[in-house]
Amino acid sequence: MAGATMGEDENPVGINVTPLVDIIFCLCVFFMISFKFKQIEGKFDTWLPKGKGTSGAGSDASIIEEIRVAMFWDEGAQRTVRKFRDRQVDDDDTLQTLIREAHADFVRLNKPDAPVTIDAAFDVPWDDVIRVVNLCKREQIDKIEFALGAPPAQPAAP
Amino acid sequence: MSSKKYRPKIQETIQPNLIPMVDIMFLMLLFFMLGADMSQRETENLILPQADKVQENPKEKAAGEIVTVVNLFHKPTGDGFVCPAQKTGLCRDVEHHVIVIRGQEYSFDTFPAQIKAEADESLEPDKDPEAGKQLSARKVTIRADRTAPFGLVQKIIEACGVAGIYKIEVGAARPPEG
Fold first, then answer.
1. Does a structural domain hold residue B87?
2. Which of A48, A78, A134 is facing B166, going by the closest CB pair?
């Protein structure tokens, strides 16, 4: 490593930069290792109904007053089964259309605040639940509730 | 005046000029120092579900806003812990999942007491007429791993409801563009 940084004729006091470079190297390595690129994170607002306590939107809530998406886990096929009004919906676009139409019906009935209730079984992956939330947000539906009652029973295999 | 002629010294050793290197290293150091997140870690490393309509987190918190970030994820393999179900990516075992708040681990048994204590720290001044009790002004952000079972998120939401917290957010990541 080098000693003086300037010619001895120009500066009689030679500064040994070796320890400085060593320490900067160590600091650089430390910060480089701890550095990570963050993914862009965000959040969806949900509000627990104040009056309902912990029951949230129960499983027995009237289907006339809400848009309900039921979700089950199919252990055999290792995938989530989604149902909208007794109709199995595998495709995201179809589900979004059904939610849009149902919401439009409520708007026509002068009930634009009718919530979309996601009624998922215990073992449904969180990713699939968020996918349905995202479909609702695409339709500018803000009121989304999670059913907090007993999880629905697995439907009988056809 | 001296009659001696100026004779340049013969340089015997080659000394590399370190100044440009030190300059660049200082710049790199500055870049990594500014980019480093030295704040108290509220978020854990987990894979969030992706959603394109997610609201991006604001750069600064609103004045007076108190937020508790609740992280939910599967225990990592190691220290003698192995989960065979994790190979498929879907483990439903409650014991295999942990809740972490500000770096502190909680189980599903100890979490309700912790969230109740946090909720009580920031109660709203007045009784809520709808709920008939004082609710908490605290906000809870749930950051759950994408493979976490919904039932466990339900348990967290239920515990928040019992504690009087009604402002709940769920975390998601925006998918990469392109």
1. yes
2. A48
pTM: 0.73
| ipTM for the whole complex | 0.74
* Inter-chain contacts counted by CB atoms under 8 A, chains A and B: 180
Partner residue opposite A122 with nearest CB, options B56, B147, B150: B150
**A130·B170 Cβ contact <8 A:** yes
Q: How many domains does chain A have?
A: 1
Domain-embedded: residue B8 = no
**Contact B170/A44, CB-based, under 8 Å?**
yes
Q: What gap in Å lies between CA A141 and CA A148, rounded to an integer?
A: 20
Tell me how many degrees the CA angle B49-B89-B169 measures, rounded to the nearest 5.
25
* A50–B35 CB contact, under 8 Å: no
* Structural domain range at position A108: 67-146
Give the percent of chain A with pLDDT over 90: 15
Q: What is the CATH number for A86?
A: 3.30.420.270
DSSP annotation string for A112-131 = TTPPEEEEE-TTSBHHHHHH
For range B154-168, the mean pLDDT = 89
* Confidence check: pLDDT of A49 > 70: no
Please say whether the beta carbons of B85 and A75 come within 8 A.
Answer: no
Please indicate whether, in this complex, the C-beta atoms of A146 and B154 are within 8 angstroms of each other. Answer: yes
Query: Across the interface, do B36 and A31 touch by the CB < 8 Å criterion?
Result: yes
Whether A94 is in a domain gets the answer: yes
Residue of A nearest to B8 (CA): A9
In this predicted model, what pLDDT tens digit does every residue of B77-92 receive, in sequence order?
Answer: 777 777 877 677 688 8
Residue A28 falls inside a structural domain = no
Q: How far apart are CA B122 and CA B129, in angstroms?
A: 18
Amino acid at A7: G
Out of A46, A53, A126, name the one closest to residue B148 (CB).
A126
- Counting the structural domains of chain B, the total is 1
pLDDT of residue B31: 87
How far apart CA A45 and CA A48 sit, in angstroms, is 10
- In a domain? residue B29: no
- Lowest mean pLDDT of A64-68, B26-30, B170-174, name the range: A64-68
The pLDDT confidence band at residue B72, using thresholds 50, 70 and 90, is very high
